[in-house]
Specification:
By secondary structure, this protein is an alpha+beta fold. The chain has one helix at 33-73; strands at residues 8-9, 14-17, 23-26, 31-32. Residues 43-70 form a coiled coil.
Length: 74
């Protein structure tokens, strides 16, 4: 998103922690629109991961139901 002038917002110290243990820290007083975009991107990535996990769970549950149905007919 193009911006006519840089924005800077003060906020709490924010730490991004990934499953690999990597982290980025945004220091108080240096929280910018770019920092916000990075955090939004991280949230979107986590949301995508959760949706994939949910789909995998649904697939496994359906597979189990099908197996149970087959066993019920035997």
């Amino acid at each position: 998103m193009p911006q006519s002038q840089p924005e800077e917002e003060e906020g709490d110290v924010v730490e991004i922690v990934t499953t690999t243990g990597d982290h980025d820290v945004v220091d108080e007083g240096h929280f910018t629109s770019e920092s916000a975009q990075i955090l939004i991107g991280e949230i979107m990535g986590c949301n995508r991961d959760l949706e994939n996990i949910e789909q995998n769970i649904n697939d496994v549950q359906n597979k189990m139901k099908n197996i149970i149905d087959v066993l019920g007919r035997v």
